[in-house]
Design a protein that fits this description.
α3 links the parallel β3 and β4. The strands form three sheets. The protein has a five-stranded parallel sheet, with helices on both faces. The chain has a five-stranded parallel sheet with strand order 7-8-9-6-10. A two-stranded parallel ribbon has the order 11-12. It is α/β, with parallel strands linked by helices and about 425 residues long. The termini are far apart. The longest helix has 25 residues. It is built from 18 helices and twelve strands.
């Protein structure tokens, strides 16, 4: 029998929820504040925690953070009054499964509990059947390098494997986001399940609405195809704002059925602060953000990546693995900015490996674009980007109050843009 821990400081809420939940076949237990709720959870790992956001001395958000620290797989649903809905949306950022706005309907409560129980059962079954989901050697062969950034990235991917928690892959195109998505998909997909890949920049609103939202807004063909596997939404930042709002409802009803992975090359937190990206969608997809570093920011991995690429190449004269790049060639390649990242490096190395008639590749064999320094951004562009990031930080510190941010920076509100 699924177990639900109800944490609320009002006994009348306990009685009401017990009367509604128990007839559905769920066992209920109670605690009157966050501290007591955490103690109860440690005594008995409940399938779901249903917690009010406004409690003293330990509120629902604090309880959520403590539960996630104790048990990363804890399924927590936050209850909130209308006035604190914004705080409930923020709770998604800290890993809440969902939230309920008081007064909620009985069918809404039971439906949310059911989705939470299905998600919990998946986690338990996966943990019992999978063991070590991803071997370290496999990760190292697919995410190549020894720099601190790539070692950190491999650790994040290892920890995320085997769970259906949404993941946001942030980084430039060509950095390896697709590879990470494939690794995470393989760690959770049921037998025979393919990853459903949707490019948000290419799908028309009509096609997107039909495939993802469905006629009733409960989920379309893409959602059904992704069930038991992975739904990959690429270039999420290109999705129109109105469509983002519709996507939130689909995720509330269906996200427990598949692994959701989104990719973006933009700062979605900044876009959310600016009001150009839907706040609830951001917190639903970004509870576990993963930043994939550019090749330029881990250039010390260059030689090792080149070796891994050569191992997959073919040369008509000799084994491509015997090809070496001279120190002069490697120096030029290290100085190049690589705007296309690892994908561009792969193309360059493959083209050289296939065409070369010598085992030692010198600077004369490199493409002309690698022999100059014209790939660097202008100083003005670099400084403008730094200024934009600083303004965004001040805006977040001022909780979006543009007037306060302008006063802090000593500029006009118009200059914030």
């Amino acid at each position: 029998m699924p177990s639900v821990l109800i944490v609320d400081d009002l006994l009348s809420i306990h009685e009401m929820l017990e009367a509604v939940i128990q007839p559905t076949g769920y066992a209920t237990s109670f605690a009157t504040d966050g501290g007591a709720g955490l103690a109860r959870y440690k005594e008995e790992k409940f399938d779901i925690v249903l917690a009010d956001i406004d409690m003293k001395p330990v509120d629902g958000i604090t309880l959520l953070k403590q539960l996630k620290e104790y048990d990363a797989n804890a399924v927590v649903i936050i209850m909130t009054a209308y006035a604190s809905t914004e705080s409930a949306i923020q709770a998604l950022k800290f890993g809440a499964f969902d939230y309920l706005q008081k007064p909620f309907r009985v069918d809404e409560l039971i439906g949310t509990l059911k989705r939470g129980i299905e998600y919990r059962e998946y986690q338990v079954n996966r943990a019992q059947s999978s063991g070590a989901v991803i071997e370290s050697a496999d990760l190292e062969s697919r995410l190549v390098g020894r720099s601190a950034k790539i070692v950190k990235l491999r650790g994040q991917v290892q920890r995320l494997a085997g769970a259906r928690t949404p993941v946001l892959l942030q980084g430039q195109p060509g950095t390896g986001r697709d590879t990470i998505a494939e690794i995470l998909h393989e760690s959770v997909a049921e037998d025979g399940k393919e990853m459903v890949r949707i490019d948000c920049s290419l799908s028309s609103e009509e096609k997107f609405a039909k495939g993802l939202l469905g006629e009733s807004g409960e989920g379309g063909d893409w959602v059904n195809e992704a069930a038991g596997g992975t739904l990959l939404l690429e270039k999420l930042e290109t999705l129109p704002l109105e469509m983002q709002k519709e996507l939130v409802s689909v995720l509330r009803n269906n996200a427990h059925r598949f692994r959701l992975i989104c990719t973006t090359s933009e700062d979605l937190e900044l876009r959310t602060d600016e009001g150009t990206f839907h706040d609830e969608l951001f917190y639903r997809v970004a509870s576990l953000p993963v930043t994939v570093p550019s090749l330029q920011h881990r250039i010390e991995d260059l030689s090792e990546i080149i070796k891994s690429i050569l191992a997959t190449c073919a040369n008509p004269h000799f084994d491509a693995k015997l090809i070496e790049f001279s120190p002069a060639a490697l120096r030029l390649m290290s100085e190049y900015r690589w705007p296309g990242n690892v994908l561009e490096l792969n193309q360059v190395v493959t083209q050289i490996a296939v065409a070369t008639e010598t085992r030692m590749v010198g600077e004369e064999h490199l493409p002309e674009k690698l022999k100059g320094s014209g790939s660097w951004p202008s100083l003005a562009d670099h400084l403008a980007e730094q200024k934009r990031g600083y303004i965004a930080k001040v805006l977040r510190a001022c909780q979006g109050d543009r007037a306060a941010a302008a006063r802090t920076l000593g500029i006009t509100e118009a200059e914030l843009d």
